[in-house]
Amino acid sequence: MPVRMELLVCGGTGCQASNSNRVLEVLREEIKNSNLENEVSVLMTGCFGFCEKGPIVKVMPDNVFYVEVDEDSARKIVAEHVVKGRVYQEKLYVEPDTNEKLPEQSKIPFYKKQIRIALRNCGKIDPENINEYIAADGYMALGKVLTEMTPEGVIDIVKRSGLRGRGGGGFPTGVKWEATRKSKSDIKYVICNADEGDPGAFMDRSILEGDPHSVLEGMAIAAYAIGAQFGYIYVRAEYPLAIHRLRIAISQARELGLLGKNIFGTDFCFDVEIKIGAGAFICGEETALINSIEGGRGEPTVKPPYPAQVGLWKKPTNINNVETFANVAPIILNGAEWFASIGTEKSKGTKVFALAGKVNNVGLVEVPMGITLREIIYELGGGIKGGKKFKAVQTGGPSGGCIPAEYLDTPIDYDNLTALGSMMGSGGMIVMDEDDCMVNIAKFYLEFSCDESCGRCTACRVGNKRLLEILNKITEGKGEMEDLEMLKELAETVKDSSLCGLGQTSPNPVLSTMKFFYDEYLAHVRDKECPAGVCKELLKYYIIPEKCVGCTACAKVCPVNVIHGEPKKVHVIDRDGCIKCGQCYKTCRFGAITRK
Amino acid sequence: MIKSLEELKKIREQYKDTLQNREAEEKNIKILVGMATCGIAAGARNTINAIIEEVRKENIDNAVVVQTGCMGFCYAEPTVEVRMPNSEPILYGKVDSERAREIVKRHVKNGEVIREWVLRG
Ligand SMILES: Cc1cc2nc3c(=O)[nH]c(=O)nc-3n(C[C@H](O)[C@H](O)[C@H](O)COP(=O)(O)O)c2cc1C
Ligand code: SF4
Ligand code: SF4
Ligand code: FES
Question: How many CB atoms within 10 Å of residue B36?
């Protein structure tokens, strides 16, 4: 009897954390209890990108998308939907603006403008079953490449497609492959960079968890193109589920002969090994990554020579990011022209972004290059949470910058983001509203860079620390006007005299916030005020006389006894002695205390 | 062990059906089977399974078969609605597995409406 209905349960890290494993068990039990186990099946897929609304359960072919499913609602879904054919209304996505319930995934604004190439199979197939990947045309591209194409032909397609590296730099992938192909050597390597160090980014993890074969296939195609026999996947230890699924995928591919010797009966041999990294941000930099695989310290080395000439164990090596590899097979199957028809003049295809921060919908979105920031934030993201005012969007992680409202209509691509003083990076996108202090944001990212600097270059090691000291001074209300100049000058120096991308980009958050939000810096330094009310030392606490009922609660909690007033009369704070602990603010039940 | 592109294609064919349900959004023919209590009592489960088997057997890969609630024709259950692109939906009544297979072969595959079983449309 053919299976007529399938319940796809998200088995990504996010949904597993919200108990999707149990939901899956309950669904199976209930279906068995209804004697439907031969007609209806339950399976686990990869991430749908909407992790915050997880666990996700999608019923096919009915095309109904359930969110936040727990054990109880899992039972109801079986009783109502599976058995009686009635959609269970309680767990549909509700559009916040209209309160409308949207059963279909493709009608939910979060998914509307998405085009899924790298994420094509995530949430669709069982990542632990190679046959499902094959059913979705998996390994067809590798077969075509090995049996019908020359390595030069492969490089040509990838070059013409316009694919650029998704790991940060945006270097044209085909050009990199060509350079590695041209390096003469018997032994060459392919490395997949799955270090994913940007805080907040998780697209690489989701691809590895949801569709590991797409990465293996992309690597094998790259290996054929450049003439490599062996590959490494460098993945951080914090990604146990990704590592688990990769292991399964590798062993299944070996069993079918899709990895190993004489693949597709040709002379081509290729196998891969997983290397687990300790998870330092700097190990994502390609030369540091190579050092780390070799067992050395994860420190960058001077380029040139590039890995394409002298890489792993001094052999020519091609390094690409997870998402870059995931794009390769569709390009081979659908053609360079198809891929190049999506995107902008110089940035082709799609990019996966990890949308986070103060928007209504957060998660992973794969959108065509050239979509505007406004579309992502206001359409897919559903606008700013709580109807607050948008202030900035931070792209590119710790190497990126903050983009203000006047550039919301900029089409997103590598070059436009760089021109705005930010970056594509690996696709982090954090939205900030009126309650975020831009000086504080710059400080946050700089702290990250200081922690992650490998310490090799003085400019990066000492310079970033000095920058951070100045920012600390400013947020503590001790900043002087000279500090602002110093900040700018020093930031430029760090940029110019660091060896690797970390130091070269770490001042970006400072520089871009100084460029677009200089008034906030001025307010901190000159007026000793934090306009967003974030920097604790700059806050001033006031009691609003009209609202104060004289309950005395605040005076009692004030640890330094600077709140005065008689019972039932308006109280006042003696600001000279106030240590800004905020206790009174939390205590007042009448909203009579404000801070600015 | 896969030793040629042909062998890979064979595996793909073998497992193609596993993704049929999940690719529903890309399909333009819809066949709905009433599966409320009345439908099930009248044998709708056999009907839907027969339809799916026949659809797969005839290699019709642009049709999705879904169950739906009560369509208000309890006296004529099991009911089946066929929605073809660019034409009005046709509702059939008293569809047992036999009729179900006929509907797939004649209507879904060849576009012939089987008048004598039509309830509405
Ligand atoms: C500090 C630093 C961290 C990096 N981290 C990553 C990372 O986590 N993942 C990644 O793919 N690339 C990372 N990169 C970029 C890599 O050096 C390299 O350019 C990339 O893996 C190449 O692949 P692509 O061309 O496919 O993007 C990092 C670069 C720098 C400077
Ligand atoms: S720029 Fe910073 S992280 Fe990069 S090599 Fe120099 S010290 Fe290390
Ligand atoms: S807690 Fe609020 S209402 Fe009570 S005395 Fe203090 S300011 Fe006035
Ligand atoms: S982990 Fe389930 S939607 Fe991302």
Answer: 21
Which string of DSSP letters, residue by residue, matches A479-524? --HHHHHHHHHHHHHHHHH-SSHHHHHTTHHHHHHHHH-HHHHHHH
Q: Buried (b) or exposed (e) across A462-491, using 16+ Cβ within 10 A?
A: ebbebbbebbebbbebebeeebbeebeebb
Measure the CA dihedral A64/A68/A73/A74, to 10°: 70
Give A435's DSSP letter: T
Sign of CA dihedral B43, B45, B48, B52: negative
What CATH class does A130-339 carry?
Answer: alpha beta
Question: CATH 3.40.50.11540 region(s) of chain A?
Answer: 130-339
**A348 in Cβ contact with A190 (< 8 Å):** no
Percentage of residues in chain A with pLDDT exceeding 70? 100
Residues 6+ apart with CB under 8 A from A414: A164, A170, A346, A347, A424
Q: Which residues of A touch B4 (CB under 8 A)?
A: 147, 264-265
Q: For strands A101-102 and A93-94, give the pairing.
A: antiparallel
Residue showing tokens 């509907």: B103
Assigned CATH topology for domain A350-433 = Ubiquitin-like (UB roll) (3.10.20)
Closest Cα to atom 4 of ligand 2: A500
pLDDT per residue over A70-126, tens digit each?
Answer: 999 999 999 999 998 889 999 999 988 889 999 999 999 999 999 999 999 999 999
Q: Cα angle vertex A85, ends A84, A88, to 5°?
A: 95
Which CATH code for domain A438-525? 1.20.1440.230
Provide the token pair at A413. Answer: 């691509």
Which one-letter DSSP state was computed for residue A526? T
Q: Which of residues 12-51 of B touch A (CB under 8 A)?
A: 12, 14-22, 24-25, 27, 34-37, 39, 45, 48-49
Distance CA A43, CA A31 (A): 12
Dihedral angle computed from the Cα positions of residues A181, A186, A192 and A195, in that order, rounded to the nearest 10 degrees: -120
Q: How many angstroms separate the CA atoms of B57 and A421, rounded?
A: 58
Weakly modelled stretches of chain A, pLDDT under 50: none
* Ligand 3 centroid to residue A550 C-alpha, Å: 5
For residue range A319-347, list pLDDT tens digits in order.
999 999 999 999 999 999 999 999 999 99
Which of B16, B25, B64 lies closest to A106 in CB terms?
A: B25
Give the architecture (CATH level 2) of A540-595.
2-Layer Sandwich (3.30)
For chains A and B, count residue pairs whose Cβ atoms are closer than 8 Å.
99
Alpha helix segments (H runs only) across A235-364? 240-255, 286-293, 322-326, 328-334, 336-340
- Cα A126 from chain centroid? 22
Fold (CATH) for A5-107: Glutaredoxin (3.40.30)
CA dist A180 and A190 (Å) reads 10
SS3 A337: helix
A395, A509 Cβ separation under 8 angstroms: no
For A231, the enclosing helix (H) or strand (E) is: strand A230-236
Residues of A within 8 A of B5 (CB-CB) are 140, 143-144, 147, 264
CATH 3.10.20.600 domain extents, chain A: 350-433
